[in-house]
Specification:
Structural class of chain B: mainly alpha
Shape of chain B: flat
Number of domains of chain A: 2
CATH architecture of the largest domain in chain A: 3-Layer(aba) Sandwich
Radius of gyration of chain A: 24 Å
Oligomer: heterodimer
CATH class of the largest domain in chain B: Mainly Alpha
CATH class of the largest domain in chain A: Alpha Beta
Number of strands of chain A: 15
CATH topology of the largest domain in chain A: D-Maltodextrin-Binding Protein, domain 2
CATH superfamily of the largest domain in chain B: MetI-like
Largest sheet of chain A: 6 strands, mixed
Largest sheet of chain B: 2 strands, antiparallel
Shape of chain A: globular
Number of domains of chain B: 2
Largest interface: A-B, 33 and 26 residues
Number of strands of chain B: 2
Strand order of the largest sheet of chain B: 1-2
Order of helices and strands of chain B: HEEHHHHHHHHHHHH
Distance between the termini of chain B: 52 Å
CATH topology of the largest domain in chain B: MetI-like fold
Helix content of chain B: over 70%
Chain lengths: 424, 303
Amino acid sequence: MKKGIFILVVMLIATTFLFAAAKAEEQKPDRIEILYWRGLTGVAGEAQEEIVRRFNESRDDIHVVVEFQGAYAEILQKMQAALAAGDVPDLVLLDSPHLQIFAKDEAVQNLDRFVKAEGKGFLDDYVPGLLADSYYDGSLYALPALRSTPLLYVNADAFVEAGLPKRAPKTWEEFREFAKKLTKVNDRGETTQYGVGFTLGATTAHWYFQGAVYAYDGRVSDEKFNMYLHEEPAVKAATLWQDMVFKDKTGVPSTTHDDLFTGKVAMVFGSTGSMGNVMRRASFEVIPAFIPGQVRNGVPVGGSVIAMPSTDKWRQWAAWEFLKFFTSPESQAYLAEMTGYMPSRISSAQVPSLVEYYNKNPHWQVAIDQLKYVQPQASVISLPKGTEILRQMVEKLLIGNQDVRKVMAETEADLIKEYNENFK
Amino acid sequence: MAVAATPLHKQMSKRARRDMWTFFAFTGPTFILLAVFIFWPIFYSFYLSLFKWNMVSPRKTFLGLQNYKDMFSDDVFRLVVKNTLIMAFFTVVVKMAISLYLATQLNKKIRGSNFYRAIIFSPTFTANVAIAMVWAWIFEPTYGLMRSFLRPLGLPMIDWLKSTSHSLPAVIIVLIWSGIGYDMVLFLAALKNVPLEIYEAAIVDGASPFHVFWKITFPLISPTTFFLTITGFINVLKAFDIARIMTEGGPLNSSNVYVHYLYQNAFQWFRAGYASALALVLFLFIMIITLIQNRLSKSWVHY
């Protein structure tokens, strides 16, 4: 009797699995539910929710469930856990340098066949500089979602007070001169206002430094992982930063934008994606500006891409539909308006709502103006420990006050070792 | 007799069998939970520690004991171990000294002692992340709270969290602050258990307060002291969130501690094998410490 029930239960379970397996072979289901893992908090998070809401409203056959997974680092960690468990989301927002690690092992889908199915010229409207780092080994693995560049946020009131013109410095040399004028020391010899806060931190320290290296017409590394940190452009940029902290005493290491809001520093680096927060939180006028140029203008593109870990055929199809919607000119224009992130579509600049918004808020246009200078980040950013090694470099320069050329040589050696051991 | 013996024997074995099933029914759920969430991860991380694996790739490369050997040539590992031991030692010693002092003071009949107890205990039920963020602001030299305390004394302003010499002390201060309440409450409970007659006898015999404390109070609360030493030490070895939020282990790894370094290896740098090896070493280290402390305790703990 008992044995009979047991066998019955086993058979019931087995048939359920059989049905489930058979179902997967069937034709396209009427309604597909897919899961999107988003990151970012504040305005950038809400704007993504809004895009999902709009998509779900427009489609009967697909429903997107969006889950917040934390900061980029946490998403990375949760993706690792999800892959180990074999239970992945259909789409995931990744910090752009993380894409390569997943693409390398095909943990996210190669999107070439979807692009091909869309027909010729599908990618033509995507800003090339923002699309470039979505490729691995010649194949597309993601689409640019919330792309950013480093900016210089300037306290305009402090500029006026220091008798400076109400505009951001154009070159790094001018930047250094401005910082001197902006630095205030009280009668006890304490600095009450610094010219600039140099950002430390594991995920951002390297990014602003890359911007400075680009400005001196140099680079950190190329696609073949040749290193250029020992060459003049990188050395000049590093020396300038270090001198401003230890010789001029006009720069100070900084880890939070509170340093700008409280008046501790008059200039600070930040992402275009922080524009919404910075402009709304500051109690004084803030000018978001290009990172200074020198020999030329050039900015390393950052921010996030959306990749597709989905393993099921129809869910992949649905995920691609949502991905197209998320990166449509209209969605990208909406995201740019809400957050300050750069639209990844060329035609977003013609979307009426965005045109109108920029007319009303001319400062925000810096995001679009910068597009012509964007270029991918250094290849070493994709090494598992790449950003950490560059963070150590910035700390050695700005906190350790170590010899620039020695620091550069050590950093190159560490990067090459990391490449040989963990990437090649 | 012989006829009766057989059924009795059968009866017994039946009962024994039933007892065995009862035993499994009661211990089973706990055992399964322990096996799935404790024993299996320990064995699996030992297995992983023998490989090089990035947690994404389907391929794992067998390395043997290379991950363990790598620790010896890893400068950051050495620094991190040093930082962790310094942090554990100072946190436990200072925290227990302060909380024992506070407990003896609050054990007296003073007005509002319940109020003070509640205040001092409050960090215990505050999220560490929030504590770390508030303290990061307190330590800020230009607009932080510490400025208003140190500046009137004419002390120089230091950016604690961005200094290689001050970042670890800053983390230790926060760990001490956040742990005092818990230790104090346990000390208070221990103090209340010391029989009053002993004190009365000591006072009649003319013992000084100093002697009363060292000869009576301290020995009698030694089980609590012992318990707090072990758990405090092990907890600090595992501390992660304060350093993570306040400094991310920086600058230049000056406040990087063991579990944070392990986390970086596993989840930021994709080194599951090396991180597993680190975890195993910590596991063994904590086990050895517990054994040693257990052995030592027999000589000075008066239960």
